[in-house]
Every structure is written in C-alpha cells, then in structure tokens.
C-alpha cells in the first residue's frame, strides 16, 4: 500500500513539473540534462528526448560557461540556493518572447533559481534550474523608466525650443562657476536676443514669431558643441555657456551664429521673412564673486550691441 502511494505521489509530482508555467531543468554534476519539462520544450523547440543526456553548454552555446559554472559550483559548495535576475543578466536561455503585451521585447526576460539537489545519502549529485518568464514585468519597468526619463527631460527643457530652460541652465552655470573656482579653467558666455521681435509678431503673427524662435534655437544647437549649454533665457532671449572656451573663441562662435541667422530666410505664406540677432560676449574672471556677475557682464555687452545698431557682437572688456 505504501509503495502504491509513493508511485502515485511520484506520478503527481511529474505531472505538476510538466504542467507548471515555469522552466524546470535538472542536470547531473557534468551539466548533462536529465529533466527537461514541457515549458523548456515549448520555448526551446527541443523535445525531452533531444535534450536528455545532452550537455547544457553544447545545446546552448550562448550561455556564459565560466560565469554560470562558477555560480552553480558556489551554490553546491555552500548548499544554498542561488539566483540570477533579469536586471543583472536579461536571460540565461535566449528564448523568443511570445507575450502579446511585450512588443518591445524580442527575447524572454528571465529570473533563474539554482537549486542544489541532495540524494538520500546526503551527497549533492544534481542541480535544478527553475526558469521564470518575467518579460511582462521587465518590459513594464523599462517603459516606466523610459517615461520617467522623458518627464525629467521635459522638466529641464523649454517646451517651444527644446533648449535648456532658464532654471536648469542657471544651475549648469552655477556648476561651471564652482569648477572655475577650483580649476581656474576658462568659461565664456554668449547672450543674445532676436532684433525687433515685437515687429515680427505684429507683422506676421505669433505663429511666425514662434517659428523664428524655433529656427534661432535650431541654428544655435547646430553650431554649439556637445559640451556647451544652450538655453532659452526668456521670451526671445537666449544664452550659450561655453566651458573651456576663451573670450576670443566665444567671439568667433557668436559671429558664426550671427551670420548664420542673418542668412536664414523663412517662408511665411509666400512672403520671405528674415531676422537678425544682437549678441554680447563675456568671460568669467576671478574678480567675479558669483555666477550672476557673468550674466550681468554679458547682458551689458548685449545692450551695447543694441545701442550700436543691432545685428552685431559686442565683447565685454
């Protein structure tokens, strides 16, 4: 009667192993497969007859053998379970993902439990792998992280131009001011605005005015380096912070930008629309007590450009 109960119990256990929606793999100490359940059959395309007695690494050469064997052997030596999670390593087996909600995932993300198996003699002569399909969780987390990144980016940028907004740009300037105090590196600032912008809005409308602002921002970004900080300071006023740039270099940048804007011609309902900018250039000096002093100096140079007839660059002495 007891023997019959044991057989029935074994049958139930085997039936459960075949039916559960996780992968179950049992290997001997030479990494040869002895149990390969239906989950593994369905996702690998290999039947149990093909997998049994085969080397895990021969069937799946994509597995990092050195890393995996070290993980398994440590688990066996300590007699405790070990785990791998998808954040550290996306998967152990490169199975395709068939979940309908996971259009962003071509492969299945997996968590894996490594379980040493002891025989009746107390010797660990087999290892069980339990493979969990966590693709849905992984994709949802990735999408959430991507959305949060976009939200943070939007919070730092001006909605119309995509340039840094004033608040974040000033924090970048504050950081560069601190870096200058420590390393005495050169830092220059170009401040400029669009000439007679009110007339553009009055004569062509606010949509045309927005296009002028967007075009100015685009030209600024095209000429700036990746290490420069381009911002919309307010309305039609812009700023470009140039780290590790001399006053002469900043002046050259300002002139290239002025000429680029001057050559630009927009088409507004068949009418050509041209515009210019006035610029002020200043550099950070040791005499400045704070970063606002650099803004004030560049702003004064910009005012001189406007007073001098506009469409020109003035360098603060």
Q: What fold name goes in the CATH topology slot of the largest domain?
A: Alpha-Beta Plaits
- Please report the total strand number as a whole number: 12
Please state the overall shape, judged from the principal axes of the Cα atoms.
Answer: elongated
Secondary-structure-derived class: alpha+beta
Q: What is the overall pLDDT average?
A: 91
Q: How would a textbook summarize the main sheet?
A: 5 strands, antiparallel
CATH class of the largest domain: Alpha Beta
Number of individual domains: 2
Strand order of the largest sheet: 2-1-5-4-3
Instruction: Kindly report the name of the CATH homologous superfamily of the largest domain.
Output: Reverse transcriptase/Diguanylate cyclase domain
Total number of helices: 11
